[in-house]
Design brief:
- Helix content is 7%, strand content 54%.
- It is mostly beta strands.
- The protein has one domain: Beta Barrel (Maltoporin, Chain A).
- The chain has a 22-stranded antiparallel beta barrel.
- A hairpin with a 4-residue loop joins strand 14 and strand 15.
- The longest helix is centred in the N-terminal third of the chain and has 20 residues.
């Protein structure tokens, strides 16, 4: 800690000294400071700017996350207060929002819910950050707008914007990663006329096994990714339509041997996964005289294979999903805005490998909802009601009673949900938000039907076809003060979940594997986030940000829930500057992230030690002659600290997380 504090003061001194030598333009810097613009929040019903939104939604541009030097999209998301990740090495990460993950967190991209067998611990997001503009995080039940699986929250990714009318743009970016000897290359083109718009972007990402602090590499954590996105749009005064397509190909190594063969080879070894995603979306808006209709259609094809020791897939699942979402924005009635809508999903899962993880199945969702937004003076009130039905039918497979066999089921789950929200200004620059909302999650196929040893679990899991729907009620309180030089926020929440689904040991052992079954019990989670951002006048170029987040999860019997992130305290000092003729929009940052001990663990977990990581960043727009480009240089875990995250799936094998990683990013407008 003494080294960190010493480094901190040296860094501050260097920033102050450098600032004296640059040509300062306070007006320009003041315009560019964070929080100067209020973002329009797309993930909520009425698309209000943040200051008018009843619900507190975290918003971050992908550019801002990339400036932190993270290797993957999920690593960047985990730097947002209240968001963490369950990781398997550096290639596979699953989002955690306030202690809930898996099917309890819904992911949206291109206006379409992502369905990619997300119940699996080793099934990642399947999204690449190239071609994504920003992300919005709803931390709490959002079933009113999104239906089942939004019980814990929503990650809503906004796609890259089209070019301005009458322009053509080409962009190339290149990132290098020292730890994994990795490379990420992306090329994008876009053009627009008055009515028509077009864009396309291709990305290739490749990494070798990641290196821990002592210099060893974790065998078969390497991966390769190919991503392609394209879109075409048309709009006039009465109609707007946008079609987008995203292809994502992931070749992922599955680490089983830990620290074994040492190589920098980027070609994956066995066992490994092959994941192919096709995402098609059609987003339409019809404008009437005093109202409008939004219709979003989506199709997702997820092809997932697992290979043990040959090119023949042992496990091969194909998940095809069609989504529809229609919202009608009724004419305003005085100060009242209202929306009614319908949502649905048709999904099929088919198996063609030797092993069956889940059976062949068909899932159908249907939901109908209404919500209203009333604003007067500095007060906003919002309320809504929704009904949903999910129907799941499966096909019998194998010999009854044997491993890998499934009985046919035909289940239907219904749920009513409601939300109430209120926002007001208690004083100038001081706002209060209070939200109470219910959410639900129908049990997934793995929980209903499992019968065998699942990859990576080392335990025999038995499903329960009699499981009920999870139902929760969460209360959120947000207090926020924000002026031109100081921002302070406090978020608190209490989340009660009825019939929380989890696995419990039966005491039986089959083929040296402990047998676990899915059962239900009530649970509660509580905690929150607190933070501030300070950039004092006249030192508008200097920013200090700090945040602390905590969550506790317990079952009704008093036992702790598993995979609850440890408390974290995050501190960042950032300077913005310009150096005449060669560097504009310059920044230098120092980040100290402290994760505390996690002693509140489930019976089948071990406690985790805390750790502190030091990260540095530098960048800006560089001009050399007639060539202009953006550069980003980051040093993550700069002191090469050896640590193990509590949410790492390699923790049980004693395998540390990634060591020091130097990241260089270059971005050219061609």
């Amino acid at each position: 800690m003494k080294k960190i504090i010493t480094t901190l003061f040296i860094w501050i001194s260097a920033i102050l000294h450098a600032q004296e030598t640059v040509e300062k333009k306070q007006d320009t810097i003041h315009k560019n400071k964070p929080f100067a613009l209020d973002e329009v929040i797309v993930s909520t019903a009425f698309n209000k700017i943040q200051s008018q939104n009843v619900m507190k939604v975290e918003h971050s541009t992908i550019k801002k996350l990339q400036q932190k030097g993270t290797a993957t999209l999920i690593e960047g998301l985990a730097t947002i207060p209240g968001v963490s990740q369950v990781s398997t090495g550096t290639s596979i990460g699953k989002p955690v929002i306030r202690g809930l993950n898996g099917n309890r967190v819904l992911v949206y991209s291109q206006g379409v819910r992502i369905e990619n067998q997300q119940f699996g611990d080793e099934h990642g997001l399947g999204l690449n950050d190239a071609g994504i503009e920003s992300v919005e995080v709803i931390k709490g039940p959002a079933s009113l707008l999104y239906g089942s699986d939004a019980l814990g929250g929503v990650l809503y990714f906004n796609p890259e914007k089209f070019a301005n009318s009458g322009t053509f743009k080409a962009n190339f970016s290149q990132n290098f990663f020292s730890n994994t000897l990795g490379s990420n290359s992306s090329l994008g083109l876009k053009t627009s006329t008055e009515n028509w718009k077009f864009l396309a972007r291709g990305t290739y990402n490749t990494h070798s096994d990641y290196k821990i602090a002592n210099g060893d590499r974790v065998t078969n954590t390497r991966y390769q990714e190919t991503d392609f996105k394209t879109g075409i749009g048309y709009s006039n005064s009465k109609f707007s339509t946008v079609f987008r397509y995203n292809y994502n190909d992931l070749d992922l190594g599955i680490p089983e041997e830990g620290i074994a063969e040492q190589t920098t080879n980027k070609k994956t070894a066995y066992p490994k996964q092959g994941v192919f995603n096709h995402l098609l979306s059609l987003n339409n808006t019809l404008f009437f005289e005093k109202s409008k209709l939004d219709v979003d259609l989506g199709y997702i094809s997820n092809d997932r294979s697992e290979f043990e020791d040959s090119q023949v897939a042992v496990l091969h699942m194909k998940l095809n999903t069609f989504n529809y979402d229609a919202k009608y924005h009724l004419p305003k009635f005085g100060k009242l805005e209202s929306i009614v809508g319908v949502q649905g999903m048709h999904q099929t899962n088919t198996n063609s490998g030797e092993e069956y993880l889940i059976p062949d199945a068909t899932t159908n969702d249907f939901g109908v909802f209404g919500t209203g937004h009333y604003q007067w003076e500095s007060n906003v009130f919002q309320a809504g009601l929704r009904f949903d039905n999910r129907k799941i039918t499966t096909t019998a497979h194998g010999v009854s009673g044997e491993e890998g066999s499934f009985e046919a089921i035909d289940k239907s789950f219904d749920s009513f949900n409601a939300s109430l929200g209120y926002k007001t200004n208690l004083a100038k620059d001081l706002s209060l938000r209070l939200n109470v909302a219910s959410g639900f999650r129908a049990p997934n196929l793995a929980e209903l039907t499992s019968n065998g040893v699942h990859e990576g679990t080392n335990r025999y899991e038995v499903g329960n076809p009699d499981l009920k729907t999870e139902q929760n009620v969460q209360t959120d309180l947000n207090l926020e003060y924000n002026n031109s030089h100081f921002e302070f926020f406090v978020n608190g929440f209490y989340n009660h979940i009825n019939d929380f689904i989890y696995t419990s040991p039966t005491g039986i052992v089959l083929d040296n594997n402990d047998v676990f079954e899915y059962i239900q019990n009530d649970a509660k989670l509580f905690g929150g986030e607190i933070g501030l951002h300070f950039h004092p006048h006249p030192l508008d170029w200097l920013h200090y940000e700090t945040s602390f987040e905590t969550v506790t999860g317990k079952k009704q019997d008093g036992d702790y829930l598993p995979l609850i992130p440890a408390n974290n305290w995050n501190n960042t000092i950032r300077a913005e500057f310009k150096i005449k003729n060669w560097l504009e929009d310059g920044f230098a940052s120092l980040n100290v992230s402290t994760t505390f001990n996690q002693n509140n663990v489930n019976d089948f977990e071990t406690k985790s030690n805390g750790y502190t990581l030091l990260n540095l960043g530098f960048g800006g727009k560089v001009s050399i002659g007639k060539t202009t480009f953006k550069v980003n240089l980051n040093g993550n875990n700069l002191l090469n600290k050896q640590y193990i995250s509590h949410l790492s799936r390699l923790k049980t094998d004693g395998i540390p997380n990634i060591g020091r990683n130097i990241v260089l990013g270059l971005n050219f407008n061609i």
